[in-house]
Amino acid sequence: MRFPDNPVKIEGIEYVYPTVSEYLSKQTVYAFLFAFLAMIVYVAFRFKSGLWGIVSVMGIIHDIVISLGFVILANKEINITAVAALLTVAGYSINDTIVLFDRTKENLKLLAKEDFVEVINNSINEVLVRTIVTSLTVFIVACSLFFFGGEVMHTFAYIMIIGTVLGVFSTIFVCAPLVCEWGIRRSKRLETVVKHGDVRSK
């Protein structure tokens, strides 16, 4: 079928050779490694514990890996836009986790006599409304971009929709339980040390 009145116009041609693809892959890996390292250092410095930083990054890795899995399942192209979206998910996830950890740090001082598990639980309840409202706002914006943003924003919005949900999930059900488990084991170690100290003193 021919359309003489509407000739085809080539706007541009792009080629991605194996060398370029390999370069982009390496740069992506470096970007994520640098981001993870910087986040560990920041959170460790902020909360004076390297464990909190490691736990935060574990939550981020959880979000990114699952988001990437959904991208592969949807057979979407993994390009610069997808990488930017995954890094955005990482930043969003760490922000949500830091809010919870910051409230936990405050409650550890205010509720010093409470059990560590109760402190974590109270902290989650205190930030839950804020987390839901913020996440719901981002989710609505991401859905708007997904349905009305056009093909250019489609992959970015798709990853953000998934990442927004995962960010809330990982903060409450991954990072908080890991820190809680660390607190329980730390308390048990301290109790063991105290008991042994009492036995030796006797």
UniProtKB/TrEMBL annotation:
<feature type="domain" description="Protein export membrane protein SecD/SecF C-terminal">
    <location>
        <begin position="9"/>
        <end position="183"/>
    </location>
</feature>
<feature type="transmembrane region" description="Helical">
    <location>
        <begin position="155"/>
        <end position="180"/>
    </location>
</feature>
<keyword id="KW-1133">Transmembrane helix</keyword>
<keyword id="KW-0812">Transmembrane</keyword>
<keyword id="KW-0811">Translocation</keyword>
<feature type="transmembrane region" description="Helical">
    <location>
        <begin position="80"/>
        <end position="101"/>
    </location>
</feature>
<keyword id="KW-0472">Membrane</keyword>
<keyword id="KW-0813">Transport</keyword>
<keyword id="KW-1003">Cell membrane</keyword>
<dbReference type="InterPro" id="IPR022645">
    <property type="entry name" value="SecD/SecF_bac"/>
</dbReference>
<dbReference type="GO" id="GO:0006886">
    <property type="term" value="P:intracellular protein transport"/>
</dbReference>
<feature type="transmembrane region" description="Helical">
    <location>
        <begin position="52"/>
        <end position="74"/>
    </location>
</feature>
<dbReference type="GO" id="GO:0005886">
    <property type="term" value="C:plasma membrane"/>
</dbReference>
<dbReference type="InterPro" id="IPR048634">
    <property type="entry name" value="SecD_SecF_C"/>
</dbReference>
<dbReference type="Pfam" id="PF02355">
    <property type="entry name" value="SecD_SecF_C"/>
</dbReference>
<dbReference type="InterPro" id="IPR022813">
    <property type="entry name" value="SecD/SecF_arch_bac"/>
</dbReference>
<feature type="transmembrane region" description="Helical">
    <location>
        <begin position="28"/>
        <end position="45"/>
    </location>
</feature>
<protein>
    <recommendedName>
        <fullName>Protein translocase subunit SecF</fullName>
    </recommendedName>
</protein>
<dbReference type="InterPro" id="IPR005665">
    <property type="entry name" value="SecF_bac"/>
</dbReference>
<dbReference type="GO" id="GO:0015450">
    <property type="term" value="F:protein-transporting ATPase activity"/>
</dbReference>
<feature type="transmembrane region" description="Helical">
    <location>
        <begin position="127"/>
        <end position="149"/>
    </location>
</feature>
<keyword id="KW-0653">Protein transport</keyword>
